[in-house]
Specification:
The complex is a heterodimer of chains A (about 400) and B (about 280).
Chain A: E1 6-18, H1 21-36, E2 49-61, E3 65-70, H2 76-83, E4 91-97, E5 100-103, H3 116-126, H4 131-145, H5 160-171, E6 178-181, H6 190-203, E7 208-212, H7 216-222, E8 225-230, E9 233-238, H8 241-251, E10 258-262, E11 266-273, E12 277-278, E13 284-287, E14 292-300, E15 309-315, E16 321-325, E17 336-337, E18 340-347, E19 355-364, E20 371-384
Parallel strand pairs in A: 3-7, 3-8, 5-6, 6-7, 13-20
Antiparallel strand pairs in A: 1-2, 1-4, 8-9, 10-20, 11-14, 12-13, 14-18, 15-16, 15-19, 17-18, 19-20
Helix pairs in contact in A: 3-4, 3-5, 4-5
Chain B: E1 5-9, H1 16-29, H2 31-47, H3 54-72, H4 85-112, H5 114-117, H6 125-152, H7 164-188, H8 191-203, H9 218-225, H10 228-240, H11 247-279
The chains are: A alpha+beta (about 400), B mainly alpha (about 280).
Keywords (chain B): Cell inner membrane, Cell membrane, Membrane, Transmembrane, Transmembrane helix, Transport
Main location (chain B): membrane
Subcellular location (chain B): Cell inner membrane
């Protein structure tokens, strides 16, 4: 067995779907008829059809993991279904060598009335195990799922997390050459998710994996090549995983600020970054270790006695809060002039890692209560650096010989 | 070990021998799956029911009782059947229900597995086989009741009863073949299921189920043309020990069914990806 044999080869793969149910069913009848006769005609779009997947090409070897990313409806799941042999392509060709395992739906074939133990057999049978294989593995499965106490209870009384655990425990016994993973691992608690990824890490060296996910941290962790799909076509395809992820995120950069709450005391009039250029997409760009200077101007609609507290939150590309800028205090010397409050917040030598960040703001009367205004995504900026890392911070360091 | 290579492309494999070989290989390899699916459904069905197994034979039994009652009270006058009428009526409704279930089985098994079909690749033929297993199980219960009828009404057991298992399998073969042909279209349009159930409701009266074939007239011609007639009447003849009237026609129907069953299996295999594409969300 060669270590780097090509296990999956996809050439010019295309698939069309129909937007209208009635028409779709009628095309189904026509396809039934023509396919029985062996349809070799080139497939063109008929009225109300569109290409769900268009001209996809890739090769995958043992030990490699391909990440399929893209917005909802980009064609990821359709592509996976074709690779799994559930539906036939309309153009192109897929060649797959070896046993194909699919983590697309966990717990397939479970019957809610029957017990967990009985359902291990149902699910195992559907995944292609023989009775003997399941007999020898059933204890391992129960242990892996960590639900021994409830194994003889009807599955309808399981929590959704328990069902997924049991389903994954059965599927983890597969020893596939090619493994297709859809967004199934998102369910379940953290311990379980970690367990899943540990299992995947374990089988990765022997397997070619195709991984569909919206979770970029996971993608960046296990994939070594990426296809970014956009409306069924390949928008980006390379071994440069972080570049693909960047592109993925830029698609979701929101330019619209979003006012969550206001008691009409003040409104945000203007916000901008100072000493900083914008790129062609109107996005501020900073280099790592540049100074971050944010200019704010608020207009007061009611008069207030004291200067409010400004809480400025910076969120990373996954919309996780990454940092707070320290709050203003009495020594900040902010003042109200003609019903305007104007100030600049400065943070020296920003140590965010490469990527796009956005800013939310909360204006309060006091530190912990009486919110005047809460507004999200008032500003976005991009940090540029050569190093592609996933965590939101790249801290300066100083290596010294001891 | 050389790895198995799968190729998916738009061109179907039109090599019939290869398709058939794959289909039979899948049926054989998935024997555990089909059994497991059948056991799952049967278990679940009875575990969630109080009357349990009674539901398997209550429908043909009640239909038979209605006709037995109509006949006993003289509301309708039926041609002499040569055997006690209750045995005639019950064996008729029972065989009819078995054939009807056999026709429905491929489509209902496939429909029930819709969710699976669009998510997991497994040998689809296992659905058909599990449908037949379930059918056999339900029929077994009905047949036991029928045997009780034979004793109670003094018909007794004849040596021709030994032929009954074969005739029974013949009836299933007949029903399954019809079922396989309607499944692809029936999976796309709900109408098919309704049309079939409506059509079979009428067809029952053109088949010697609850009354014998009249001596003359249009009905006689219709009933003798109806391919369900030889299946029902021959099987019943084996049960009660009469000499079968339409044995030649029976032989023809089964002889035609065997190649058609093979065609049906291939049709099923080819059509599944198209059906999955149209029904998966």
């Amino acid at each position: 067995m060669k270590e780097n044999e090509v296990l999956v080869k996809v050439e010019h793969l295309s698939k069309k779907f129909c937007k209208d149910l009635k028409t779709s069913l009628w095309y189904g009848v026509k396809d039934l008829y023509s396919n029985v006769l062996g349809n070799t005609q080139p497939r063109n779009l008929r009225p109300k059809e569109f290409w769900a997947v268009k001209d996809i090409n890739f090769e995958l070897r043992r030990g490699e993991c391909l990440g399929l990313i893209g917005h909802n409806g980009a064609g990821k799941s359709t592509l996976l279904k074709i690779l799994n042999g559930l539906i036939n392509p309309d153009e192109g060709k897929v060649t797959i060598k070896g046993r194909v395992g699919a983590l697309i739906e966990l717990g397939a074939g479970f019957n809610p009335i029957l017990s967990g133990r009985e359902n291990i057999y149902n699910n195992g049978a559907i995944l292609g195990f023989t009775r003997k294989e399941i007999d020898t593995k059933v204890e391992a499965i129960i242990d892996f799922a960590e639900i021994r106490e409830f194994i003889d209870m009807p599955v309808q009384n399981y929590s959704s997390g328990m069902k997924v655990r049991l389903g994954f425990a059965v599927a983890a016994q597969l020893e596939p050459d090619v493994l297709l993973i859809d967004e199934v691992l998102a369910v379940g608690d953290l311990g379980f998710v970690l367990k899943c990824y540990k299992t995947i890490d374990k089988i990765l060296p022997r397997t070619a994996i195709i991984f569909v996910s919206h979770s970029m941290p996971m993608v960046s962790r296990i994939c070594n090549q990426i296809i970014l799909l956009d409306n069924g076509t390949t928008k980006f395809q390379d071994k440069d995983v972080s570049k693909a992820i960047d592109l993925y995120y830029t698609r979701f950069v929101q330019n619209e600020s979003n006012l969550l709450f206001t008691d009409e005391t003040l409104e945000l009039n203007e916000v901008k970054l100072l000493d900083c250029n914008k790129n062609s997409d109107n996005l501020y760009q900073l280099n790592w270790l540049d100074d971050l200077k944010i200019y704010f101007r608020f207009k007061l609609k009611k008069s207030i006695k004291n200067i409010p507290i400004f809480a400025i939150v910076i969120l990373d590309k996954e919309q996780r809060p990454a940092a707070y800028l320290d709050l203003n205090n009495d020594f900040s010397n902010l003042e109200i002039k003609n019903n305007f409050i104007e100030f600049v917040v400065k943070h020296n030598k920003v140590q965010f890692s490469k990527g796009v960040y956005s800013v939310d703001i909360v204006v309060k009367r006091e530190k912990t209560k009486n919110v005047y205004l809460r507004q999200n995504n008032i500003l976005s900026f991009q940090i540029k650096h050569d190093l592609d890392i996933f965590p939101p911070f790249l801290l300066t360091s100083d290596f010294q010989k001891v | 070990m050389a790895l198995e290579t799968k190729i998916y492309q738009k061109e179907n494999n039109t090599n019939i021998a290869k398709l058939l070989k794959d289909s039979i290989k899948d049926i054989y390899n998935s024997r555990f799956l089909s059994k497991q699916l059948a056991v799952r459904d049967i278990k679940a069905q009875y575990r969630q029911s109080f009357l349990g197994i009674i539901w398997a034979f209550i429908t043909p039994l009640t239909t038979a009782f209605v006709w037995i009652f109509l006949n006993l009270t003289g509301t309708i006058r039926l041609t002499d059947t040569g055997i006690p009428y209750p045995v005639y009526a019950f064996s008729g409704t029972l065989l009819w229900s078995i054939i009807k279930e056999a026709i429905d089985a491929p489509m209902s098994s496939t429909t029930a597995a819709k969710g699976l079909l669009s998510k997991i690749n497994f040998p689809k033929e296992a659905l058909l086989v599990s449908g037949i297993y379930k059918l056999l199980f339900n029929s077994l219960v009905k047949i036991i009741i029928l045997l009780v009828f034979l004793v109670v009404f003094g018909v007794g057991f004849h040596s021709s009863l030994l032929l009954f298992p074969f005739a029974f399998l013949g009836a299933i073969l007949f029903g399954t073949t019809i079922g396989l042909f309607i499944t692809p279209i029936g999976m796309l349009y709900n109408d098919i299921k309704k049309i079939i159930s409506l059509g079979l409701g009428f067809l029952m009266y053109a088949t010697p189920v609850v009354y014998a074939i009249p001596k003359e007239g249009l009905m006689k011609t219709l009933m003798e043309l109806n391919p369900f007639t030889p299946i029902i009447s021959t099987t019943r003849a084996f049960i009660v020990g009469q000499s079968p009237e339409y044995l030649a026609y029976y032989g023809w129907v089964l002889a035609v069914c065997i190649p058609l069953l093979v065609v049906g299996l291939l049709l099923y295999r080819i059509s599944i990806p198209i059906l999955v594409e149209r029904m998966s969300a």
